[in-house]
Write a structure and sequence with these properties.
4 helices, two-stranded antiparallel ribbon, 2 strands, mainly alpha, about 190 residues
């Protein structure tokens, strides 16, 4: 598969990741910072947030396959300063808190409770672990994230759609990692 086709595959596949991120962000809109939630509901929101961050950052990450990383240069997009700051924060969150456990981004505490001996038994130490479960991307930050994702998708559509119209054969391929065959050469 030649470089131009690899770029097209990356661009188009990025739309899937961005749409997944957008769906997760839409679910996160249901989070109310003023409301008290049980731990299960907080974790549900955290799952949506994790999907948002991982799906958004996936196209910009190194791949193990044969496709290049997505970049705004591929689609001729220039981010404004707010968009760039939002993008940078999402990538940093992905790298430090959601895809990896970077010490500088950890939010947890650990303590021990000792129960004194009963009868002839030794004291027992119980570990009390606590994590920050609330979402980090809420309010204005969430709205800015949604705006950024929508802007990137719109830019992909506006940059690629005219090319698809004039050269549909360049955008005709089938890739399926489950199958040994595909309609594009490697």
């Amino acid at each position: 598969m030649e470089r131009g086709t690899k770029d097209k595959v990356r661009i188009l596949y990025s739309v899937r990741d961005l749409q997944m991120a957008l769906s997760a962000a839409d679910f996160l809109l249901g989070y109310d910072e003023q409301e008290k939630y049980c731990i299960e509901d907080l974790r549900r929101f955290k799952c949506f947030e994790t999907t948002l961050v991982i799906s958004y950052a996936r196209p910009f990450s190194n791949t193990r396959g044969r496709f290049p990383r997505f970049s705004f240069d591929l689609i001729g997009m220039q981010l404004d300063s707010r968009q760039q700051a939002c993008h940078n924060e999402l990538i940093e969150l992905r790298d430090g808190a959601f895809a990896h456990s970077d010490k500088r981004m950890m939010q947890m505490s650990s303590a021990f409770l000792t129960i004194e001996s009963i009868g002839n038994k030794e004291p027992v130490n119980f570990s009390l672990l606590r994590w920050v479960e609330r979402p980090l991307i809420v309010g204005e930050k969430l709205h800015m994230t949604i705006e950024l994702i929508k802007a990137v998708i719109r830019h992909i559509v506006s940059s690629e759609f005219p090319k698809m119209q004039s050269n549909p054969e360049d955008y005709t391929f089938h890739l399926d990692y489950h199958s040994q065959s595909s309609t594009s050469d490697e």
